[in-house]
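I'll show an entry:

:::
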Amino acid sequence: MEQKNVLSQQLNQQQVQVQTLAPQQVLLARLTELPVDALRQRVENECMENPWLEHSREDEDDAGNALQQGGSDSSGLADGEDMSTDERMGDYGNEDEIPDHLLNYPSGNNRPENMDYRSTLSFYDHLKDQIHEYDLTPHQQQVMEYLIGSLAEDGMLPKSLEQLADEAEIYQGIPTSSRELEELLHILWQFDPPGIGARSLQECLLLQILRATHVRYRKEATEVLRSCYDDFMHKRWDRIGQRLHMDERTMEGVKREILRLNPHPGFSLSEQDNSTEQHITPDFIVETEEEGNITMTLNEGDLPTLTISEDATERLAAYDRKTGKQLSRSELEEMHFTRRYVERGQMFIQALIQRRETMTRTMRAIIQWQRNFFLEGDESMLRPMTLEDIADRTGYDISTISRVSNSKYVQTNFGVYPLKWFFLRKSSTGNHDGELTQREVMAQLSALVDAEDKAHPLSDDRLAELMSEKGFPIARRTVAKYRGMMNIPSARMRR
C-alpha cells in the first residue's frame, strides 16, 4: 500500500512537470512562427493584457534582464567568419546616401528601425496598369501583357526573345516576332521599378543606374558595369581603379552608387490582394563583406526590452514577509492575481529569449550550409538542403525548423528572399554525390536550349546526351519532365 502511494505521488509529480512545461513550449512555438511585424504586435498585446509587464526602449547591457538588445542580434558563424558589430553602412557618407533597401535595418548601435519591404508574389497587375501610360496599339498591348507575364518573380526575363515569340504563337495564339518583342522590351524598361525586364544582372543594374536621379558618378558607374563587370562581381576594386584610372574618392563614390541598386527589382513591388498592399519586413539581415566575412543580424524591429514591474516584485515580497500571518480575503486575491501575472510575464519573457536563440541558431546553420551562395549570390551554388538537414545541425526538431522558416524573409547583398527559398530537394539524378538540385539541372537545361541552333533545335535525346557530358546524367524522360516544368516546347515546336 505504501509503495502504491509512493508510485502515485511520483506519477502525480511527473504529471505536474509536464503540465508546467507544456504551456512554455506552446508559447515558444507560437512566437517562433510569427514574423517580425506580427511579433511586435503580439508583444504589445501582451503588455496591454499583463499589468505587471513593462517595457523600456532603452538598451541594456545587463544580461540578467530579459530581452537584451531589443531589436537585433548579431551572431557569429563557424569557419572563422567575422561577426563583429554591424558596419554595413560604413560605405555611405551619411544617412541621405544610404539606399532605401538598406536604410532602416538594425545598426551596430542596436537601433532597430523598421523597413517595410513591399514585395509581391504576383506583381504582374502592377506592371499591366502601366501599359495604358504608353501609346500602344491593341495588338502591342496584348504582346506587352504576354511579355510581362513571362517575367520571373524577381522581375527578370529568363527566356530569349526568340523563344518567347515561338511560345506566344504556339500557346497563346499571339502572332509576334523577336524584333517586335525587342521594341516592346525597351518600352518595358521604362516601367517602374527600374530594372524590370532585364535579361541579366548586368543589364538590370545598368538600367537602374541610367534612370537613377541625383547620381553624381553616373558615367563612372556605367563604365564599371559595362567594361569591368566581372571585376565588379568579384569585388576587385583595385583592378577596376587601375583600369579606369579612378582615384580613391571617385571609386568610393562609384561603389556607393552601385550598392544603391536592387538586383531583384520585382521583389520591391507591393503585393496586392484586393487592392491592399502587404508590407514585408525581413526577419534576418545577412551582409557579406569583401573579405568574405558574413554578418548576420536578427531583426526584431523596435521590439522593446521587457521586464517585470518593480511594484509587483515589491508586492510579492511583502506577501512573503507575512508568512504565518493571517491574510485578508482581498489580500489573498490580490496576491494570487499578482503572482499569476508575474509568472505569466516571466514565461513570456523567457519564450522571447528562447525564440531569439532558436531563430539565430537556425539562420546561422542555413548560412553555413549555403555559405557559397551568401558569398557570391549565384543561385547555382545553392546546395540541396532539407528541414531534416538543419534540424540535425541545430539539434532542434523538424517542426521547429519549419516554424522558423515559415513566413520569414532574409535580406542579403543580392536581394530579399523568403527563407523557404533556401530549402532545396536533391535531384533524382544521383550525380555530384547527391548534391545536385533540381534548380541546377533546370538552369543547365535552359542554357542548352537558349544556345541551340534555332533552325535545328535539340531533341530530348540529344539534350540528355549534352547534359550527361556536362556532368548532369539525366534520362530523356527527365529532360521532357523538366522542359515541361519550364514551359519549353518540344524540338518540333521550337523550329
Observations:
- The radius of gyration is 28 Å.
- The chain has 20 helices and nine strands.
- The chain has three domains: 1-89+105-116+282-422, 124-265, 432-494.
- Residues 1-89+105-116+282-422 form one domain.
